């Protein structure tokens, strides 16, 4: 996948100006914060692995549609699901690339003295963002487009109908992606133009988290309208008018010549909104690059406040309290860590929002296997996601302060990391599941599940601490060190199998107190064993702050053959 992406980029940019190509490549690599990475990082491989995951999901969906073809009456349902998926993925990519399109202080300080026009910088940044978004759209729909074209396009018009649906599908997906990203750029551009830089940096973090919540909430709380009667019902008119999903579904059917005449106004709304956000994004970006380049350098960034009262909660000893507060402030203030954690928590919020939608529409129901498995999935992604961002540093230049102040044994640092995982990973998810459990009956079984869920979270915490010999947010990251695709699919398979096994046993244990006691005893034993192993390892472990690739020695296979001796070098007795 990496070679394919690199070949495509080289082919497209072969005839472009050299400054544009150089800046485009650098801006493309800066989707991931370079200051957090090891000097041996392989960023194209890191990004290509995530594209491979999306491609695999798309091909699985496409094969599923071909193997189990849905009836023609479910065409709108599948189209709405695909448009919603594209909007969600592009929305998450927009959150990931939140500030990459606008000029920052490093861009101005490095590029301003060079003979490079601001419009060239703008076009290079837009091209880099478009490249990432285009790869995401293609990877997400490469398999689904083929499957849906065969199932929905071929019956209507044979090969010509399949081709028409295929082209309409791809145009709609790219149009929906352009609309959403253009809307995000328009909102950001207006904030940059009308606010000071310091105020913009404060508001930008709030807008970023708000956008993340809106994208997830719309995807998993928005109802699906699958029939013509539902689309034209007066009670659903406000939803159809306000949701871009239905606009682009109507656009897809208009291009495919399968839209009812009374729904063409939705397709017109998609065209109009696409033009508005394109004009708004380009106008705001041009004004930002023409008017705010100098302002970016002159205005100060965020600075810590010096006035007011400062209260720091006591969460343990002095070392543990310092590391816990350091982790809390790193998550709250660092855009890089906030975005990385949001990617993991997107799964958590998706599951939670799905259950909220189900609880709103259904009466109280008994606790079942699907809820138990969902709670295990939420706990796993929250704890493991938090452990993942612990490997990303806040500032590599400041790590020397933590290196020279290591006055306590390594076990104290491991204990502080354990407390961070419990406070910021286990406790929020347990509270969220407890709130969702208010809809379940009977209460005793719900309490039993919450008790076991707490122990399950503690087991995950101890597993995350195995050979974790570093302070959170202080060690550089080495992309390419592990195979993201293998970890993703292996983790998904193990998580589903483990969740199904534990969930099935727990459901049976609700009716048998002895089995439930045995399950709790096994959880306690696992926590004790893992904690003992981590404590013994911490006694001899040394904290490290830099990820280094393994040293590999390459053998060339050369054999030294000594030259034949000359006659003059032989002893006189051996000469002829």
Task: Give a brief rundown of this model.
This protein has 20 helices and two strands. It is an all-alpha fold. A two-stranded parallel sheet has the order 1-2.
Written overview of the protein:
By secondary structure, the protein is mainly α. It folds into 2 domains: 1-30 and 42-300, no CATH class; 327-549, no CATH class. Helix content is 71%, strand content 1%. It contains 20 helices and 2 strands. It has a two-stranded parallel ribbon with strand order 1-2. Helix 14 packs parallel to helix 17 (410-436), helix 15 (369-389) packs parallel to helix 18 (443-464) and helix 15 (369-389) runs antiparallel to helix 19. The chain is globular.
In terms of quaternary structure, the protein is single chain
How many strands in all?
A: 2
State the major sheet: 2 strands, parallel
Number of domains: 2
Uncertain runs: none
Q: Helix and strand string, N-terminal first?
A: HHHHHHHHHHHHHHEHHHEHHH
What order do the strands of the largest sheet run in, or round the barrel if closed?
Answer: 1-2
Count of runs of 4 or more consecutive helical residues: 20
Mean pLDDT comes to 80
- Strand share of the residues? under 5%
The helix-and-strand class reads mainly alpha
N-C termini distance: 68 Å
Determine the fraction of residues in helical runs and give it as a percent range: over 70%
Q: What general outline do the C-alpha atoms trace?
A: globular
The value of Rg in angstroms is 28 Å
